[in-house]
Specification:
31% helix, Conserved hypothetical protein from pyrococcus furiosus pfu- 392566-001, domain 2, single chain, alpha+beta, 9-stranded mixed β-sheet, 2 domains
Length: 416
């Protein structure tokens, strides 16, 4: 069963929370993050993306980068912008985006639950990204950002969360992207114990929704720290835990995660269409086409949208991974036609989260940066859980969760 414990978070003051809060480190590139943080020294981008404080040609993986992130965090604490709670708490974190509302609990999961597969994965990690996040944890002894987990909905946990939400929130603000963020602090000892007990008795598994690299980094560095002090998993040191926001699975929303490709691998457009027709029915569209069902795709090339519908025999609905539309696209288009075999390493393909809209696909192709784009139908939570429960791995860049958590609202100190 699952371990979920309260902790003493570093948090911004109510007056400064909106100045501190930032999008996660991997949502914006360096240029975009630098623009958002301009004129705001309290922005948490200075902590999670400290490269924005260096010249553009500075090595983003140099030790100075990670040290600067820690220095920037320490400055927020020294200036009284952030402070640590006096006692261990859970935190209730609600996000509201365009009428979609989801409410999670902020706490800490045991790193050993990651290693024993109680925390279930559905993606492989890239060594360079994993090492980058590990270096942030090593330099700071902090979990700067929570990972985004899900668990099978439990009515008794919902009841406690709803009771606490009837109280006055600690934070309640609308970010510049229109997403509303509300947070309640749970510090009652009886409630804390009830929540931990419910996870221990009623939540057999927790699923990584978003943040495989941060999860791996937090667990692996936590184990490094524990081994360095010759500690045990049973002791109360904070390096046995990593910070997470856990949401009931019935509240989460997954958006499409689309693909753009730099070239047609020497194929003419006519030859491409001929090859595609072997595995898909093709329908020309007068405007943007967003897939409406599984096994359908939008394709944009040469200022024209098409609907592609996979033909029978091109997929296996009895195979949890084989039925995924990203698998169908890879097996029938990306690999045989474009020779894109390794989605993690091939520089000819890029990925666009659904929040950016189909217009972003058109922009990337019309600019000449890319040659062709594919719009995907979103993966479901049921598909994600089935794959995770069967110890299978999704292809890269399949799930795009919205709304995104804000970083800087809570930080976990491993050095206690």
């Amino acid at each position: 069963m699952s371990t979920f414990t309260p902790f003493k978070a570093f948090r911004p003051t109510q007056e400064k929370v909106q100045a501190v809060a930032s999008k996660p480190y991997d949502v914006l590139n360096d240029k975009e993050a630098k623009a958002e943080a301009e004129g705001n020294p309290a922005s948490f981008y200075h902590v999670i993306k400290p490269e924005i404080d260096f010249s553009g040609d500075f090595d983003h993986y140099a030790p100075e980068i990670y040290q600067k992130g820690k220095e920037n965090f320490d400055s927020l604490v020294k200036e009284g912008i952030m402070a640590q709670d006096k006692s261990a708490c859970f935190y209730i974190y609600q996000l509201n985006m365009n009428g979609h509302e989801q409410t999670g609990l902020v706490g800490c999961c045991a790193i050993d639950d990651y290693f024993n597969n109680t925390i279930k994965k559905h993606e492989l990690t890239r060594p360079d990204k994993e090492e980058d996040r590990k270096n942030h944890v090593r330099a700071s002894k902090l979990n700067y950002e929570p990972v985004f987990f899900s668990y099978p909905q439990v009515g008794d946990i919902d009841d406690i969360v709803n009771q606490e939400k009837s109280k006055t929130p600690t934070y309640d603000f609308v970010a510049d992207d229109g997403i509303k963020h509300t947070l309640w602090v749970v510090d009652d000892a009886e409630k804390l114990n009830q929540i931990s007990q419910l996870f221990e008795t009623k939540v057999p598994s927790i699923y990584i929704a978003d943040g495989h690299h941060r999860t791996a980094a937090g667990a692996l560095v936590g184990r490094e720290l524990r081994e360095a002090r010759a500690g045990e998993a049973s002791d109360e040191k904070r390096d046995n835990y990593l910070m997470a926001v856990v949401f009931p699975d019935n509240q989460l929303k997954i958006l499409d995660y689309n693909r753009v490709v730099k070239d047609l691998n020497g194929l003419s457009e006519e030859a491409l269409m001929e090859r595609l027709s072997e595995h898909f029915s093709i329908e020309k569209k007068d405007s943007q086409y967003r897939p409406e069902t599984l096994h359908t795709f939008g394709m944009y090339v040469n200022n024209q949208w098409y609907k592609l519908a996979a033909k029978e025999g091109t997929y296996d609905d009895t195979d949890p991974v084989g039925q995924l539309d990203v698998t169908i696209l890879s097996n029938n288009v990306l690999e045989p036609l474009f020779n894109i075999v390794d989605l993690r390493k091939d520089k000819r393909i890029d990925f666009v989260g659904g929040m950016r809209g189909l217009g972003e696909l058109e922009k990337r192709v019309d600019s000449g940066e890319m040659k062709i784009a594919f719009a995907m139908y979103p993966v479901s939570m049921k598909q994600l859980i089935t794959i995770s429960d069967n110890d299978l791995i999704m292809p890269p860049k399949v799930t795009w969760f919205e709304p995104k958590l804000r970083s800087g609202l809570f930080v976990h100190n491993l050095d206690e």
